Amino acid sequence: RYCAEPSSSQGIEGTERFDSPGKGRGLRALRHFAVGELVFACPAYSYVLTVNERGAHCEHCFTRKEDLSKCGKCKQAFYCNVDCQRGDWPMHKMECVAMCAYGENWCPSETVRLVARMIQKQKSTAERTPSERLLLLKEFESHLDKMDSEKDEMNQADIAALHHFYSKHLHDLPGEQALIELFAQVNCNGFTIEDEELSHLGSAVFPDVALMNHSCSPNVIVTYKGTVAEVRAVKEISPGEEVFNSYIDLLYPTEDRKERLLDSYFFTCECTECTSKSKDKAKMAIKKLSTRPEPEEIQSMVCYAKNVIEEFRRAKHYKNILFMCELSLEKMGTIFTDTNVYMLHMMYQSMGVCLYMQDWDGAMNYGEKIVHPYSVHYPAYSLNVASMYLKLGRLYLGLEKKSQGVKALKKALAIMEVAHGNDHFYVAEVKREIQEQK
């Protein structure tokens, strides 16, 4: 099904695949990369636009624009023009027929939709693709031997949904074992594509990007230009140095990050940040009280925070979430300072709810409390910090606080020029927003 292994000439210029001590395969630099420099770009092997963004983004190229044209058959997929519609047809056609057949009962998860597209692509593509210059899709780790019963059940539910929604429209589905492996590979190696405010746009598979190992102190950042992943240096990278990406949100303290990495990616991180724990004290800031809380009390509050975070994932109504946030902020505020990462998590959730409910002043108040601690806790050139300045800047402008708005947008821009590159349309958009205030 695939060509022979790549010769070095088929790789990505300036980098090479190598055996990273204790980490398996990885990517290392063959030359110097400056901060903000593009290390490499990788088109998606396969991708899918999230259902919530239908009509706002082109299904094929993910361009955000008004007046998109809809598919004449299913009337649910939207495109920039005929070229985009034609380009997407090899992938959309199996969904189009199924969507028409199921009507309102069409509801496979994003992962199921992505895997269906991958199967379709594998059928029509025998050669190595431009997304697999260093790592083939079939080389993805699945970690099946490490999966617990809960993950196993989720996998089985996804396989059942794939059969239910696609078996009539996608002929010769792989066997049970091959599907178990494919879903496990996607869960470990898939990416979520996000916009400049970190809103979810879709899911994709980028094999060459998946080659990079994780560090909680990464030297590159991954951003997206449509359906292409771009990897840029956020630190100076010297020849011979390994290229590290971050797989997770870096806001949380070491133990949380280790827990998350072990649960989702099945390894224990031993990076410099995890061994030094240099930011943990600031991240877990405790109020100066007349009697310092006992370690057990602090631990109990951390457990409470984690449980509330878990409840958020299950909460259906925004008003419920806001009530839960305010309640938990009050309770945790008896021990934690406002700069504690668990307090920040609750404020971030609250801000999201305020934005959804169009309570602009409420959202601005939360954003103002979040943005500076974020700048301290996250690494330099963090997308989380940039998106917070961006949201805040746009809120200020909407509330006619012009000078504060421009100031916040400029701070977002300084990070985005490094993370997204000067020629990115998100960067051009923010520049235009600043220019319009002059």
Automatic annotation (TrEMBL):
Keyword Zinc carried by entry: yes
Organism, as annotated: Neogobius melanostomus
The protein's name: [histone H3]-lysine(4) N-trimethyltransferase
MF (Gene Ontology): histone H3K4 trimethyltransferase activity; zinc ion binding
Pfam families: SET, zf-MYND
Catalytic activity as recorded in UniProt: L-lysyl-[protein] + S-adenosyl-L-methionine = N(6)-methyl-L-lysyl-[protein] + S-adenosyl-L-homocysteine + H(+); L-lysyl(4)-[histone H3] + 3 S-adenosyl-L-methionine = N(6),N(6),N(6)-trimethyl-L-lysyl(4)-[histone H3] + 3 S-adenosyl-L-homocysteine + 3 H(+)
Region feature Disordered, mapped onto this chain: 1-20
GO biological process: heart contraction; methylation
Lyase as UniProt keyword: no
GO cellular component, one term: cytosol
PROSITE patterns (UniProt xref): SET, ZF_MYND_2
Skewed-composition ranges (Polar residues): 1-12
Record EC number: 2.1.1.354
Subcellular location: Cytoplasm, Cytosol; Nucleus
Coiled-coil boundaries: none
InterPro entries reported for this sequence: H3K4_H4K5_MeTrfase (IPR050869), SET_dom (IPR001214), SET_dom_sf (IPR046341), TPR-like_helical_dom_sf (IPR011990), Znf_MYND (IPR002893)
Domain of life the protein comes from: Eukaryota
Ranges for domain SET: 13-248
Chief site of localization: cytoplasm
Function: Protein-lysine N-methyltransferase that methylates both histones and non-histone proteins, including p53/TP53 and RB1. Specifically trimethylates histone H3 'Lys-4' (H3K4me3) in vivo. The activity requires interaction with HSP90alpha. Shows even higher methyltransferase activity on p53/TP53. Monomethylates 'Lys-370' of p53/TP53, leading to decreased DNA-binding activity and subsequent transcriptional regulation activity of p53/TP53. Monomethylates RB1 at 'Lys-860'.
